[in-house]
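Incident log, entry 3
Record: Glycosyltransferase family 2 protein (413 residues)
Problem: checksum mismatch between cached and fresh output.
Input:
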Amino acid sequence: MGSPAVSVIMPVYNCRDYVGHALGSLAAQSFQDFEIICVDDGSTDGSLDVLSTEKASSRFSSFTIVTSKHEGPGVARNVGLEHARGEYILFLDADDFIEPVLLEHAVSKARALSADIVIWDLWEYNDLYQRDQHPPMGTLSFSNLMDAERAETETCSWRDNPDAIFTSFQNWPWNKLFRKAFLDEERLRFPALRRTEDCTFTCLALVAAKRIALLYERLSHYRVARPGSTMANKDSHPLDFLAALTFLRRGLEERGLWEETKQSFTEWAAQACIHNLVTLNTVGAFQLVYYHLQKGGMQQLGILDRDPESYDAPFVREFLVHLFSDSREDFLFWWASRGERAQGESHAHFDLVEANWLAARDEAERVTRELDRVIIERDEAMTELNCLRRSFEYRFGVKACKIPRAIKNKLVQ
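Fresh output:
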C-alpha cells in the first residue's frame, strides 16, 4: 500500500470520554486518504480500550496505536512523527474535533500553493455549555499577514510582517497542516515539556516556512472548560512556559532571526507571561511564577529591553508597570480590582449588545407585520381580479374584441 496523503497524529492521555468524538470527526472526512497514529501517553482511565475498539472496528483504512509512558503531548507527538508516512501532518488533540471538509480543503490548498504550512480559523467548543463560541477578540489575526482575497491564490511568510508573525497565528499545532518534508528538513520537533510544548515547535515552524497558506474558514473545534485538561492542571508544571519561551528565543538566535523577530516575540512572550501567571489555581504555583518573572525571567526573554509603553496591548503595558513597582500583595490587589473593572465593562458591553439585539428584534417584528399586511392586500387584490375575470362584463368585453381583431387580420391578408 502506498503512502497516505496525510498522517493524523493524536496524543491521547486520559480522554476516554472525548477521543471517540475526535475519531468520529475523522471518520466523517470528505477526504479519506489519511492514516491515524494514536499515541497513548500512559492513560489510566480506559482511553486505550477505546482506541483498541476503534482499531478493531475497521472503519479506518490505517489505524496505528503506539503506547508509551506518560511524558506529555510533545514527546507523544514526536513518537507519532517517527511513525508517520504521510506527505502532510495534521496534529489532532484527543478532546478536540474537526469539520468534515478540513482535510479536503487543507490538502487542496497545500498542493495548489506548494505550502509548507496551511493555517485555518477555529471555534472554541465550551464543554460546560456544550456549544461553539468565538475565541476572544484578536486570538487569530490572519489579515496582519494577508487578506482573504489574496489568500485565495497566494502564500505569505513571516517576512510580510515580522512584527506580528507570532501574535497573529498563535502557537497551536492543531489548526495547521504541515508538510512533513519541511518539518524534517528544518529538524523541527517538540521539546520534552508537559505544558506549552507547542510554543517552540510551532513558532519556529512559522519563521522557517517559506510559503504559508491561509484558509479563512473555521474548521477546528478547540474544547475549553473541560475538567482534567492540561490547561486546567497547569499548576503541576507552572514554569514550563518560561522554558518553552527560552527555547524559542534560543532557536531564533541560532537561525539568525532574533533581531528581525524580537518585537513580535517579546509582544507574544509578555502576553504569555501574563496569561500563565494570572490563570494559576494555587498560591504556591503563583508565588513561584511571580518570583521567577520578577527575578530575571522577563529580562531573560528580552521583554524588559523595550519601553513598557511600546507594547501594543494596553493590558500588557499596565501589567509590566505593576509587576515591577508593586509588592506581591499590592499586585494581587491591583489585579483583583482590575478584574472587577473588567467585569463591569463586560456587563456594560453585554447590556449594549442586548439593547441592540432587542432593537433589531423589534424592527424585524415590525417589518414582518408590514410584510404580512402587504401579503394580505395582495391576496385581496388577486381575489378581486379573479372575480372580475369571471364576471359577465369581462367575458363580454373579451368576445367583443374578437370582432375588430378578425377584421384587422382579414385586411392584412
